[in-house]
Structures are given as structure tokens and as C-alpha cells.
Prior knowledge:
Oligomer: heterodimer
Low-confidence stretches of chain A: none
Distance between the termini of chain A: 49 Å
Number of strands of chain B: 0
Largest interface: A-B, 19 and 26 residues
Structural class of chain A: mainly alpha
Helix content of chain A: over 70%
Radius of gyration of chain B: 20 Å
Amino acid sequence: MNTYLWIAYGLGFLIYGIFLLVCLRYRRKR
Amino acid sequence: MMPKPSFFLNHSRTIAPMAFLSMTVLLAIGYGCVLDVPIDATQGEIFKILYIHVPSAWLALAFYGIVAFCSLVYIVWRNQVAGLIAYFSAWVGTIYTIVCLITGSIWGKPTWGTWWVWDARLTSMAFLLVLYIGYILLAKSFAHRAQGLKFAGFLAIIGSINLPIIKWSVEWWHTLHQSSSVFRLSGPAIAWPMLWPLLICAAGWLAYGLGIVCWLLHKELQHLKNQHEAILQQRSQ
């Protein structure tokens, strides 16, 4: 597989995944 | 007549898990099919970046549309839920824009020979990121959230002029970025076996964004409800 393709998919899914986890764990401060 | 916040509080609780479930199914099918998609004759395998770059770009624009529209509803009808939807959509839109710019840049290096070039499409997309970040910073920089959302809303509405500029930048100027190949008056220029996995992936990432907005909206409305009940309880004592 193409290295650029791996990097693009890796970074893309990583960013989407981290943001999803941050949102799911989001707690509203008082 | 606008629905009440309780309507959104009840429905966002059920919509969010359904959206995340749809996201999982659609992305599994979409990217499963991407493995079998025929390889592009000129670009080779690298063209498959399309399946993460293009949905991110479409949704970055679509979510900016949601931010601008909900900001308008918030400013004109003072609907609090619309303000919150605009704010959370801006966060999701920022992520779509970042992924679009990064994956586009990684695609540019092997195909164009450069990571970045200041052509009309890339510059207008970078400006979209600036607008998103500006919206979020402005919304957060006031002591009263209502005021922050109002001023940020004005920015979002004025900034929506950038949406047609992004869409038609590749037609109006001679750019390095290729012109539209899906949303064209003459129909898609992309072959069907390559197009349909793209539409499924885009639907999956749309479910991702809608799920996150519903989830955050539910948390926020629940928090406001708890706060409201605590005040009422204090008063009655």
C-alpha cells in the first residue's frame, strides 16, 4: 500500500477518533 | 412555531446513539468497499485518499451552512437551542475542515509535488477554518453566552459568503485543484463503481457529525435543566 495513503487515513481516523472520544467524555463544568 | 427545549432534550438522547450506530455500519460498509474499488488509471492507489478527503470537504461546507442557518434562527427568533446547535456544529465543522486540509495536503505531495499552494480552492478552504475558529473564539469570549453566540452568529452569517466562493473557486479561477466531479449540472464525471462507496462514506461521516452534535446538545440541555431545577428548589426552601 502507498505510504501517503496510510498516513492520510491514519491521521484522518486518529483526529476523528480523538474528537469523538473527547466529546463522549465531555462533562459540563458548573 | 418553534419546538421547546424539552423536545430536543428527549429526542437528542435517542438520536445520538442511533447516529453512532448508523455511522459504524455505514463506515464499515463504505471503507470495506473502498478496498475493492478499481484503482485509478493515472494516479494509482493514492486516489483512494478521495474517500476521506472529499466527505470531509463536503461536510465542512454543510456544517458551516448549519452554523450560519442556526445562527440566523438564534438571532431573529432568540431560540436558545438553535444557538447551541450552531455552536456544537462549529466544533464538528472545524474537525472536518482540519481533516480535509491535512488529507488534501498529503494527497498534493505525490500528485502535484507540493504540500500546499495558495490557489483559490485551498485558500478559501483555509479561510473557512479561520472562520470556524473565529466563530468559536468569539462565542467563548463573552461572560454571557447569549451575547457571545449573538456576535459569533453575525460572523457566521457574514462568513457564509465564503461557501459559494469555495464551491465555484475551481470554475472561476484556473487552479491546481481539479474542478468539481460529483455535484455538476451535467451529472457526475466519476464512474459509478468509484462513486457509490464515496456516497456511503460521506453518509457515515455525516452520521458521525450529527451524532456528536446531538450528544453534546443533550448533555448541555440536561445540565441547564438540572441548574434550573436546583434554583427552583433553592427558592422553595
